[in-house]
Amino acid sequence: MTEPVGIRVEGVRFGYPGRPVLRGVDMSVEPGELTALIGLNGCGKSTLLRIAAGLLRPDEGRVLLGGDDLARLSRRATARRVALLHQSAPAVPGMTVRQLVRQGRYAARGPLGMLREGDDPVVRRALRDVGVADWAERDVDALSGGERQRVRLAMALAQDTRVLLLDEPTTYLDLHHQLDVLQTVVRLREERGLTVVLVLHDLAHAARFAERIVALRDGRVVADGPPKEVVTPGLLADVLRVAGRVGQDPEGGWPVCYPDHPLQGLANDNRIH
Ligand SMILES: Nc1ncnc2c1ncn2[C@@H]1O[C@H](COP(=O)(O)OP(=O)(O)OP(=O)(O)O)[C@@H](O)[C@H]1O
């Protein structure tokens, strides 16, 4: 197993035209840590992951992967270090699951765009990791939303990077497969020394599976720490705009939330400019 790699986000500011999103984000993820990123819709979680994956350049600040400044790395060098599962992975009509997952190997391609020897085992392993090997020859178009989501995860794993950024990896999944995917991520993190950041809307999952929770609001990090310290009624109110109680799982010890009702005033509070 290779040494895990840490991520440092330093003073990152970013906006889309007319829409400031990140207003000075500092976040440090230790090598091998599993961090959950939480916050309201539109607060900038996906944008932050895209910046950490090198797909967007920050207007200010920088991202370091294992000490390397992303701004100094080529597209291919970045793709060898960090993989992003995002919500809109491309699928060409008629593409099979195996073909889509092979797209995750693009960072390893040689100068002529050919897959190098040894790539297929990585693709096969990625298909197995998320339990989709039996569908390898199926058309991606013919998969359900949840099935496609697992294939997207396999595609990210096929990139075979030490840093994995997962944007809502449990979207579309039934409860069985949500837990299955999260446990798979935990297992792979341990087995392969991965550093993982995942965006989760389900605070129960974040509290149970993550070692660390980072909460975004108004374009800044407003809470950062282990679930037991961070998950409080104040976090529910201030970050997720719900009133609720927080207890503790009697067996696992992790925080358990009992959300009650949405708090008013979201439209104003979520407006950051
Ligand atoms: N390509 C884009 N062009 C312009 N604005 C964008 C673009 N992508 C996102 N935005 C805006 O930037 C803000 C942050 O979006 P982002 O997708 O990062 O939020 P998020 O926290 O991931 O939201 P969600 O929980 O809904 O997925 C939103 O207001 C969104 O409308």
From TrEMBL:
Membrane topology: Peripheral membrane protein
Residue span, ABC transporter domain: 7-243
InterPro entries documented for this protein: AAA+_ATPase, ABC_transporter-like_ATP-bd, ABC_transporter-like_CS, P-loop_NTPase, Siderophore_ABC-ATPase
Principal location class: membrane
Protein name: ABC transporter
Keywords for this protein: ATP-binding, Cell membrane, Ion transport, Iron, Iron transport, Membrane, Nucleotide-binding, Transport
CDD domains, sorted: ABC_Iron-Siderophores_B12_Hemin (cd03214)
Signal peptide interval: none
Location in or out of the cell: Cell membrane
Record bears the keyword rRNA-binding: no
